[in-house]
Amino acid sequence: MNKLVVSPSPHIHSGLTTAQCMYGVLIALLPAFFVSLYYFGLGALLVTVTAVLSCVVFEYLIQKYLLKGQPTIANGSAILTGVLLAFNLPSNLPLWIVVIGSLFAIGVGKMAFGGLGNNIFNPALAGRIFLLISFPQQMTTWPRPQAFNMALDGETGATTLNILKRGNIDEIINIDVMEMLIGNAGGSFGEVSAIALLAGFAYLLLKRIITWHIPVSIIATVFLFSFFVTLHEGIEYALIFAELQIFSGGLLLGAIFMATDYVTSPMTRGGMILYGVLIGIITVVIRLWGAYPEGMSFAIFIMNGVTPLINNYMRPKRYGEVAKNG
Amino acid sequence: MKTFRIGGVHPSDNKLTAHCPITQAPLPSQAVVLLSQHIGAPAQCIVEKGDQVKVGTLLARANGFVSANIHSPVSGTISKIDNVADASGYNKAAIYINVEGDVWEESIIRNDELIRECQLDSQAIINKIDEMGIVGIGGATFPTKVKLMPPRDMTAEVLIINAVECEPYLTNDHALMLAKPDEILVGISILMKAIHVERAYIGIEVNKPDAIELLQQKVQSYTGIEVVPLQCRYPQGGEKQLIDAILRRQVASGALPISTGAVVQNVATAHAVYEAVQKNKPLIERIVTVTGEQLSQPGNYLSRIGTPISQLIETAGGLPEHTGKIVLGGPMMGRATANIDTPTSKGTSGLLILPEEQSHRHEPSPCIRCAKCVSACPMGLEPYLLSRAVAVDNLEIAEEHHIYDCIECGCCSYSCPAHRPLLDYIRLGKGKVMNIIRNRSTEKKQ
Amino acid sequence: MNIIITSIITLAAIGLIAAVILYFIAQHFKVEEDPRIEIVEGLLPGANCGGCGKAGCRNFAESCVKADTLDGMLCPVGGNETMKKIASILGKEAVEAAPRVATIRCNGSCQNRPRTNSYEGASSCAITHNLYIGESGCAYGCLGCGDCVSVCHLGAISIDSTTKLPVVDTDKCGGCGACARTCPRGIIEVRPLGIKGRRVYVGCMNKEKGGIARKSCNVACIGCGKCAKECPFDAITISNNLAYIDSNLCKMCRKCVDVCPTGAIQALNFPPKKKSETTTTDTSTQQ
Question: Domain of C44?
Answer without folding.
Answer: 35-90
